[in-house]
Amino acid sequence: MRNDVSGTVNGPVLQARDFHGPVTVTTQSAHPGMASVTAPVGRLEHGTRGRAALIERLTGAVLSPAGRVVVLHAGGGYGKTTVALRVAEQVADQVRVWWVDATTTASLTAGLAEVALQAGAPPASVREAWTGTRSAPELLWRTLNEVPNRWLLVLDNADDTRVLAAQGQQTADYTGWLRGPRQGSGTVLVTTRDQDQAAWGSVADRYPVPALDPVDGAEVLLELAPTAGSREEATELSHRLGGLPLALRLAGAYLASTSGAPALPGLAQPRGFAGYQAAFEQRSVELTDVGTPREREQLSRTWELSLDLLAERGLPQARPLLRLLSCLAAAPVPHFLLDAAVLARSPLFPELTPQRLAGLLSALTNLGLVHGVDTAVLHPVVRDMTRQQRDVLDEHAGYAELHLRLIEAGTADREPVEPANWSCWAALLPHCLTLAENEFPVAADQALLAVVQHRAADFADAIGHAQDAYALYQRALAVLSRTQGPEAATTLTVRHNLAAVLRDRGDLASAEAAFREIHGVQQRVLGPEHPNTLTTRQNLAGVLRDRGDLSGAEDELRAVHAVRLRVQGADHPSTLIARNNLAMVVWDRGDLASAEIEFGAVLAVQQRVVGPEHPNTLSVRHNLACIVRDRGDVRAAEVELREVLAVRARVLGAEHPETLSTRNNLAWLWWIRHDLASAEEAFREVHAARSRVLGPEHPSTLNTRHALEQVAAARRLDVRPER
C-alpha cells in the first residue's frame, strides 16, 4: 500500500501507517447541502453605536473600483461580525454579497463551493474541484474574476488563518482560498482575531475594531435597559466593562430583565447599572445567568477559543501566560517584569526561554487577547473572566507564588528611592499592592513578601503617595513582626518608616507616640548613637516642630547634630539633614539672618556631596527662597522658586508633595505682589492636587484651602495679605 493520500477524498480511505499532509475524508450523502452564503442580517438586532466612522470607511472600500482584501481584526466580543454585517447590509443594493463562515475548513469549503456555483461556475466543474480532481481555489477565483458585476465576499471568523492557505504555503502568499480580486471585480472582507501583519501580507488593508468609548457604551446600555439608572451610571458601567460590545449587551439584557422585576425579599439581584457594576467586580461569571445560551457560551468561551487555536499551533503555554497576566493587577504589565528565567522555575512554564516567551506574547497580541508595546494590557472583561476559569482557581497558589517571585526579581536591582528608577517602580507599584490579595502559607514566601512590600512602600513614600506607603508598610510590618520579631532591625526600620508616614499624613499625635516608642527600643537594642536611632530621634524632633514645640525640637536636633558631626562627619548627608532641620527651627523662631546663613552653608556642601538636583538639595534651595521672600525680596524669591519648581517637577513629579509645596509658595508670592488672579488659580490647582495626593483633611490641604478662600475674598475686597 502507498502512503500518498492527500487533499479531499470521497468515501472511505484505507491507509497504511501515517497520513502525510492534511486529508479531508468525506462520504456521499443523501442529505441536501445546507451551506448558506446569505448574510445573516437577522443578527443585527442591536445597533452599531460608535462604529459609524469605521462602517463608512469600510463601505467606501467595498464600493471603490479597486479589487481589495480588507481584514477586520479584533479580539473576541468586539463586534467584528456586527460591523461586517452592517457593511453588507448597506452595500447590498449595489453589489452582490456572499457570506461564508470561515471558522473551520469544512464550513469554509462548503460555503465557497456555493459561492462558486452562484458566481457562475459549471456544476460539473465544481463537483470535480471539490472532490479533488482539480484545484478548487483556482476554479473559484477564475469564476469570481469573471463575474460582470461588483461583489462582496465576507469570510467571517477566519481566526485560524491556516484554513485559507494553499497546501504547504502561507495565507499571505495569496495562492489559496484568499486572493486579491481583479481590478473592478469585487472585495473580500475577512473578520478575524489575528491582527499579525505577517499573516495577511501587504495585499490586505487591515482595520482594527476598537472597544466602544464610555459614552457610546452607555448608549448601548440605555437602549437595552432604559430604566436601569442614570446616564452617568451607565457611563461608569460602560467604562468598567471596557467598552466590550458583547459584555455591554449581556449587561443590558440582564438589567432589562431585573430592573422591572419584583423586589422580593432575599432576592439579591442587581437592578441597576451601579448594582451591576458592584456585582460584576465581585463575581463576574455569575452575572452571565441572563441572556441566550449562545451569548452565555460566547462570553465564557470567546477567549478560550483563541487559546485553543494557539495550542493547536504549538503554543500551549499561551494559556497559562494569559492566566498569569490576569492574576496580576488590573494595570499594564511591563515586559521587564516577565522574566523567563523566573517563569521557567515554575511547573506552569517548564523549560520556558526568553525567545519562547516573546513568541507567546506576540501570539496573544496578534489574537487581540493582550495589547501594548512595552507592556501587556488585558481588556478588563478578558482579565475578569480569565481569573474565574477553573484551572486558575485550582492553581491559585502557583500563580500567586509566580506573581511574588516576578515582583521580587523585577525590584531587586532597582533602588526605590532613586529617582532614575521611579518610572519602572511606577509601573510595578499596582502589582505590588495586589500581592495583599494572595495568601502565602510557606515561610520562605512570607519572608520574600515582606521584602517586596518594604521596597514598594519605600518607593510610594519617596514619591509622596502616603496612603499606598502606609498600607504597604503595615503589611510588611505584620509579616516581619511574626517571622522576625518586633525588635529585629528590619522590623524596627519598617516601624520607623510607618511612623514617618503617619507624620506625612498629618497624624502628628500618633507619629510622636510611635517615634518615642521606637526610639526607646532602638536605644536599648541598637545603642543611642546608632545611625537608625539618631534618624528616629531626628524625625521625632520634626514632629515636635510641626506641633509647635520649638524648644523641644531644637534640643533634640542640636543633640542629634552633635553626635552625627562626631560620628559621621560634617559632609555626611544625614549630618546635613540634621543641620538643615535645625536651621528651619531657627527660621521658625524668626531669626531670618541666622537661618539664611545656615541654609546657604548647607546648600554649598550638599551641591558638592549629593548633587544640585538631589531632593535634599532642592529642599534647601526651596527654604532659602522662602527666607528671601520673608526678607521682602519677592522678585528674587520668585526667580529661585520657579527654578526649584521646574527641577522638582522633572525629578520628583508634578504632584509630589514637595513639588506642590513649591507651587503653593509661588502662589503666596503672587498674592503678595497683588497678582490675585494668578494666585487664586494657583491655589485652586494646588488644593485640587493636594486633595488627591494627601487627602482633603490633611493639614497642608486645609492650609491651601484657607489661602484659596482668603485670596478669593481679597479679589472681591482688594485686600493684600499679611506676611
Structure commentary:
This protein has helices spanning 52-63, 80-91, 105-119, 123-130, 136-144, 197-200, 214-224, 231-240, 245-258, 273-283, 293-312, 318-327, 340-344, 354-366, 380-387, 390-394, 396-411, 422-433, 443-462, 466-483, 489-504, 508-525, 531-546, 550-567, 573-588, 592-609, 615-630, 634-651, 657-672, 676-693, 699-717, and strands at residues 7-10, 23-26, 68-73, 96-101, 151-156, 186-192, 205-208, 333-334, 375-376. With 723 residues, the protein is mostly helical. The protein has a five-stranded parallel β-sheet with strand order 4-5-6-3-7, sandwiched between helices. Strands 1-2 form a two-stranded parallel sheet. α17 crosses α19 (443-462), α23 (531-546) runs antiparallel to α24 (550-567) and α27 packs parallel to α29. Residues 26-31 and 284-292 have low confidence and may be disordered.
Task: Summarize it.
The protein has helices at 52-63, 80-91, 105-119, 123-130, 136-144, 197-200, 214-224, 231-240, 245-258, 273-283, 293-312, 318-327, 340-344, 354-366, 380-387, 390-394, 396-411, 422-433, 443-462, 466-483, 489-504, 508-525, 531-546, 550-567, 573-588, 592-609, 615-630, 634-651, 657-672, 676-693, 699-717, and strands at residues 7-10, 23-26, 68-73, 96-101, 151-156, 186-192, 205-208, 333-334, 375-376. By secondary structure, the chain is mainly α. The strands form three sheets. A five-stranded parallel beta sheet has the order 4-5-6-3-7, with helices on both faces. The chain has a two-stranded parallel sheet with strand order 1-2. A two-stranded antiparallel sheet has the order 8-9.
